[in-house]
# Entry
Amino acid sequence: MSSNAHVPVLLGPVLQGLKIKPDGCYVDGTFGRGGHSGEILKQLNANGRLIGIDRDPQAIASAARSLKDDPRVELIKGACAQLETFISERSDVSGQTLLGRVDGILLDLGVSSPQLDEADRGFSFMRDGPLDMRMDPESGVPAGQWLASVDERELRHVISKFGEERHAARITRAIVAARQEAPIERTLQLAAIVESAVPAPYGRQRSKKHPATKTFQAIRIEINHELEQLESVLGQSVNVLRQGGRLCVISFHSLEDRMVKRFMRNASREPEPYRGMPSIPDEFRPKLKIIGKATTATADEIAVNRRARSARLRIAERT
# Structure
């Protein structure tokens, strides 16, 4: 299989984790190229329903005709952080709002393989293209424009926090010096600047990762407000799911995974009753139950799909 082919990550564990009911309603909050959605749909009967959401217009436009034409499927161009709004605007066959009646939500975070493969999107430091990085090219500020004006202290903060890059200070100085000479407008241009700033032995031994990996990740997260989006959609998920509904989240780096883990842990804890309180009010009882431990890809899956090597799936159930 080609390394560029789109392969849904952790597909088996996701399908099992969603505990799909044939007549259930499921939301793929990060539709991408529809890999997970297509497999979910295979397990639904004529009464089942699938709602796909993605803020990338190309993701919606390139969806397979079989998905677009399926009466059980609705594709929405928008951010996953609008989840509660989208679901509250939709009804089931009886006319009741879908809010609180969804059986499963899937979030496959980060950038998709097709986005990385298309040089014009500006996500990849391996292909030359305009320094864009926007998930939605129709809104927001391109990465090149942001780099041209961002304050040096803020740039260092972004690279250090969102990239968890220990050479953030060196890289920031190199970027600031370079932009004084010429605008940084191309992906390979930025990658070369970062590589020149990082000490030759990247750690004790040269890392298998390109030196620009973490910087590109950090800028992409900042440009797209990815962590704010994640925090918002996680909070909304408990209002969207029905009792027994499942939330499945795939993350690809520690920042996202820590947020997901912390959210699920906090939402599954029962607070201590106050002194004199006979019982805990229902509104303060746990909203989620954690299902198992985090799941990672097998060696066989990683051999077929290298993107799976850093994937981590966490599952929780609405109580």
